[in-house]
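Dear colleagues,

For the upcoming journal club I promised to circulate an example of a predicted protein-ligand complex. I picked one with zinc ion because it came up in last month's discussion. The inputs are reproduced below in full, followed by the predicted structure.
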Amino acid sequence: MAGPIVHMFPCLKDNYGFLLHDPATGETATIDTPDAAKILSEAAARGWTITQVWNTHWHPDHAGGNADIVSATGAKVFGPEEVTRIGAAPDRILHEGDTVKLGNATAQIIETPGHTLGHIVYHLPDHHIAFVGDTLFALGCGRLFEGTPGQMWDSLDKLRALPDDTVVYCAHEYTASNAAFALSVDAKNADLVGYAEDVTKKRAKDIPTVPTTIGREKRANPFLRADNPQLQAFVGHPGDVVATFAEVRERKNRF
Ligand code: ZN
Ligand code: FE
């Protein structure tokens, strides 16, 4: 049986929109609602009708288009409770371990507090796909607007435990600046150097660097390497995973 199709497209300044379509049943989900008009036109161009909204967190560039998508399509909204901060409550509020079905495809919910306290990730284990919102970026991670470094590290550690071949759809194209920062703390990491060269080539041709994979990020993303002894020593916190993560995140904020 064919698996679901992911259609990814740029929108707003540096967001990505994602439509997940199950060919067997015709069901289609939009992952977040950064730009309702763009999402509706991308769906229409494929002859798809949006039946579900899957929110990752409450920020306006992720849930701000919910009302327009629902009024245009009647789609059911799934998401964390915090989405009520900018609009209607989701039809179904999701928690760790819950499952969401789109036709024949099933997503498992992973709670990833840090960027916001209610942030969730949608993992489709049978299809090796994860929609990670603003928790994990290619060579980066989300800013800690609401959570602590310890919470964010635990969240990233859960994503790090997914299979290496998991295809990771991040919600922003931030990779060129993330790569420059990553090299400033982990310059001797050969996997990172090769990855950064690839990013430079892709961005010069305006090619997206999303999706990435868990395996690739584990080897090169400094925010997934806070337990690496070389990185810990470089930022001055040998043996301390959370202090290393917090220091790397602080340096990125100032970079
Ligand atoms: Zn956000
Ligand atoms: Fe965002």
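Two points we might discuss: The first helix runs from residue 36 to 45. The domain at 5-254 is CATH 3.60.15.10 (Metallo-beta-lactamase; Chain A).

See you all on Thursday,
B. R.
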